[in-house]
Amino acid sequence: MVSKNLGIEIKWPKYAWLNGSIVKWEDAKVHVFVHGLHYGTGVFEGIRGYYDSGVMKIFRLEDHIMRLYRSAKVILMDIPYKMEELIKAVKDVVKVNQFRSDIYIRPIAFRGLGSFGLRATNPVDVAIIAVEFGKYLSPKGIRCKISSWRKPPADSIPVWAKATGIYLLYHLAAMEAHLSGYDEAILLDSEGYVAEGAGENIFIVRNGELITPPVYDAILEGITRDTVIKLAREELRLRVVERRIRREELYVCDEAFFTGTAAEVTPIVEIDGRTIGSGTVGEITKKIMDLYREVVLSRIEKYRYWVTEVEVEGKG
Ligand code: PMP
């Protein structure tokens, strides 16, 4: 079955993983009174798997699972499984579904059924979902809008954790951009500096240098961000600076791009009606996009340790 609305088109897979077992897709259900649904008390991850001749290549699986546990710690939640168990569960879901194309894997842990109210520490449900998934944003370049929805200050909700409740803010920002005819939103922090996209970290290029907001700003510590910083420094010998970016600087930079598991490396060609650089994919952005592709497909020996290979059943 294929589900389509304003979001992403999904062909339902056959199986998911829920609380310790592989279950049929239609049985992957929880009760309407789960705490996470009412209060956003959950944490999640987004991981990509790249299908390559009978093998699913999962990018930075351990790093994503580690971030899931860090996010859980921030929101005072114990995940009732060991990290190795969830890593195995991800591999099991990928294998049992016999995927034949690229996928997106969504581990999620949230407070379940039990008591009621804001002090409740209900038992935690854990699910792992994997769906076939292609491009999220156009690799030809996208048009962005600075959102009127701001990132909260550091003493407000913890944006450093990938927690479900926080994503209401990003949903509102993404919808605002979409309803105004743009592809994606860019959020400013509480002081007006550039933070990140609704689901992506942001980089700009100025005079051959890469610039991105630091992790002590109101951003998610992106795994793709980390990958790109390392590749830019080690393979392209570029200087990468982590510092604040003003809104005006975005408008006049030479190149700009987003990074994210879903977005991969997506060029930004327009922001608030200002053309970025030449209005097409920038030279440095293109180099990073190509390199990123090689790395996720484990074509570069040095970075093979980032890729977990799962043989998909019924090879061929
Ligand atoms: N920022 C936000 C708000 C996100 O949701 C994401 C996607 N997880 C990112 C940045 C990029 O993080 P990553 O590269 O780890 O996917």
Short description:
The protein is of the alpha+beta class. It has seven helices and 19 strands. It starts with a strand and ends in a 5-residue tail after the last strand.
Radius of gyration: 19 Å
Bound molecules: 4'-deoxy-4'-aminopyridoxal-5'-phosphate
- Per CATH, the superfamily of the largest domain is D-amino Acid Aminotransferase, subunit A, domain 2
Helicity, as a percent range = 10-25%
- The number of strands is 19
Number of domains: 2
Order of helices and strands: EEEEHEEEHHEEEHEEEEHEHEEEHE
Total helix count? 7
Written account of the structure:
The chain contains 7 helices and 19 strands. 43% of the residues are buried. Strand 14 (209-212), helix 5 (223-234) and strand 15 (240-242) form a beta-alpha-beta unit. It folds into 2 domains: 15-132, D-amino Acid Aminotransferase, Chain A, domain 1; 142-296, D-amino Acid Aminotransferase, subunit A, domain 2 (D-amino Acid Aminotransferase, Chain A, domain 2, Alpha-Beta Barrel), CATH 3.20.10.10. The protein has 316 residues and is α+β, with helices and mostly antiparallel strands. Strands 10, 11, 12, 13, 14, 15, 16, 17 and 18 form a 9-stranded mixed beta sheet that branches. Strands 3, 4, 5, 6, 7, 8, 9 and 19 form an 8-stranded antiparallel beta sheet that branches. The site of 4'-deoxy-4'-aminopyridoxal-5'-phosphate (PMP) has 14 residues, from helix 5 and strand 16.
